[in-house]
Amino acid sequence: MAITKGKSTMNKPQYSTKCYMCLSGKLNIDHKSVDLLKRFLMPNGKIKPRRISGLCAKHQRMVSNAIKKARILALLPFIVYDTDFRK
């Protein structure tokens, strides 16, 4: 007689599996919408990964390309300098 374990709910991720862009109905992401793109940047200027940003693969590619275009056009910084590290 084998003992089988049931599926545990403890190991399931706590974040939503639905994409933010798919839920809001946005079809494309423009590099000029800086306020929207800042949502997908970390405080040090890096692009957030999919597991943190909650985007699907299609929209993550669109966001990362828009962020890269906005950086080239100087709408977003490449890096963010922290002035407190020297203290």
Structure report:
The chain is mostly helical and 87 residues long. Helices cover 34% and strands 0% of the residues. The protein has 4 helices and no strands. It is flat and about 65 Å long. The model has no long low-confidence stretch (mean pLDDT 82).
| N-to-C CA distance | 65 Å
Helix content: 25-40%
Largest β sheet strand count, sense and barrel closure: none
Look at the structure and give the mean pLDDT: 82
Q: What is the tally of beta strands?
A: 0
Uncertain runs are none
Gross morphology: flat
Rg over CA atoms, rounded to whole Å, is 18 Å
Oligomer classification: single chain
Structural class estimated from helices and strands: mainly alpha
Beta-strand content estimate: under 5%
| Helix-strand topology string | HHHH
- SS element count, helices: 4
